[in-house]
Amino acid sequence: MNRKTRIIGIFKKTAVVLWWVATILIMFTIVNVLSAKIQGKVPYFCGYAVMNIVSGSMGETIPEGSYILIRKTDPSEIRKGDIICFYSDDPAIKGYPNTHTVVEDPVQGENGLEFVTKGDANPSKDPVNARAEKLIGRHVTNLELLTKFSVMLEGKGIMIITIALPALCILCMGATMFVKLKREADEEADAEAAAIQAAAIQAT
């Protein structure tokens, strides 16, 4: 086996390993997202989460329909002026995620650290403080491109188009590449075996 053949073999093996790693990561991400959705929780990926704002309570700061990037943050790091996402205890939306601005310094309540919050477009503070133990994360930025893209794809099939279909395409492409590389490797191995056999016959 010459040097060129060895290099090609190493490249093919590396490509197969990378394909499996990518496939596992994609499947892990899909399972993580689906699991979180089933439990009514916000899924994280590498400490970050993407959320869709479904109300206009944040006004122009975060317009209704916007997608935002949230970073998982220790409650002790939250300060007045931060925009946070949390599972609300407000009876009107109890248990659902809410994204509002912290308008006062954190306070110690009966249940530990709490945050006084308010929607930028709301006339008054939230009736129930956000509890530290229910903090999802701190707002990092508005994802304007994703928001515009989602508007273009509005409809019942958006989840299929934006998540399932791309993942399926990636898996199909990976599977095709794997089969092709395996076939080429088998053909190369057969050719090498034939050459060795021919050389052995000639030697005798």
How would you characterize the overall build of this protein?
This protein has three helices and nine strands; from the N terminus they run H-E-E-E-E-E-E-E-E-E-H-H. It is of the alpha+beta class and 204 residues long. The chain has a six-stranded antiparallel sheet. A three-stranded antiparallel sheet has the order 5-6-8, with no helix packed on it. The longest helix has 46 residues. 15% of the residues are buried.
How would you summarize what this structure contains?
By secondary structure, the protein is of the alpha+beta class.
Indicate the structural class.
alpha+beta
N- to C-terminal distance: 22 Å
Let me know the largest β-sheet: 6 strands, antiparallel
Estimate the global geometry from the Cα principal axes.
Answer: elongated
**Order of helical and strand elements:** HEEEEEEEEEHH
The average pLDDT value, as a whole number, equals 78
Q: Could you give the count of β-strands?
A: 9
Strand content: 15-25%
- Helix proportion: 40-55%
